[in-house]
Design goal:
single chain, 255 residues, five-stranded mixed sheet, globular, disordered N terminus
Length: 255
């Protein structure tokens, strides 16, 4: 058995124990990641973890062509990711986390447009940051190059494929995708218990996967709108498909 020394990755917390340093990797597009982040921030408030933040692009991950051909200016999350990177690198991880929280509330709860510069600037202000971070981020091509490099480095290092991804030891230790939850745990005790299970599993190199179906989605206004829009699109497509057949049948009956 190999023992993992985690003493250097833990800092004292108010409960008298030690807080795990955890890298939380996110894409602001993902509602599942947002729900998990609410749990992670709860853990941080309890002193169970100390969060830092990594960036991952789901759009880039799903792009099947050479990444050099990806246009960040047409990306829904490109501006938000580049802004998050600049905030994190210039102000720090706590500021990056505050920006992510504010942006998530606007996108997933208030149903504002993630790609709208007005929304991103407002989220910066809500987080106590200068709204000019957005303008500086999108004016500097190197911010996208750094987001892309970070994304690709995670894919290469830990075979990252989505968010949320949690990496212990402040990003230097083993990583795990998830946990994926429809709602964050309701109580302090439930939040901590989930973390105990997740942190135990992530350090077991022989553990690979637990998974089940998703009968429900995240309990968010964003998701409810998404389901309603998908149902409407399906109904429209069905109506469009049946219209020619109905017209043909009518024509045959009158000929």
């Amino acid at each position: 058995m190999t023992l993992i020394d985690v003493s250097s990755s833990r800092t004292p917390c108010y409960k008298g124990s030690m807080a795990d340093r955890v890298r939380f990797t996110f894409d602001p597009l993902c509602p599942w990641c947002y729900q998990t982040s609410r749990w992670a921030f709860h853990l941080q408030e309890l002193g169970e973890v100390e969060l830092s933040f990594g960036l991952f692009s789901l759009e880039l991950n799903g792009f099947t062509k050479d990444h050099d051909r990806f246009d960040p200016d047409r990306s829904r999350a490109g501006g938000a990711l580049r802004t998050a990177l600049l905030v994190r690198d210039e102000v720090g991880h706590k500021a990056c986390g505050a920006f992510y929280v504010a942006l998530g509330r606007r996108y997933f709860i208030a149903l504002e447009d993630l790609a709208d510069p007005v929304v991103i600037r407002a989220a910066l202000v809500e987080a106590g940051l200068d709204p000019e971070f957005f303008d500086r981020a999108v004016a500097d091509r190197s911010t996208w190059d750094r987001v892309r490099a970070e994304h690709e480095a995670q894919v290469a290092a830990i075979d990252a494929f989505g968010v949320p991804t949690l990496t212990v030891d402040d990003g230097a230790g083993p990583a795990i995708f998830g946990p994926v939850v429809t709602e964050p745990p309701a109580t302090d005790a439930e939040a901590v218990e989930l973390w105990r299970h997740v942190s135990w599993l992530v350090r077991r190199p022989n553990f690979l996967e637990l998974k089940r179906s998703r009968p429900t989605g995240p309990d968010l206004p964003y998701w409810r709108r998404f389901i309603a829009e998908r149902a409407a699109a399906t109904a429209t497509a069905a109506a469009t498909a049946t219209a020619p057949a109905a017209a043909t049948a009518t024509a045959g009956a009158t000929s």
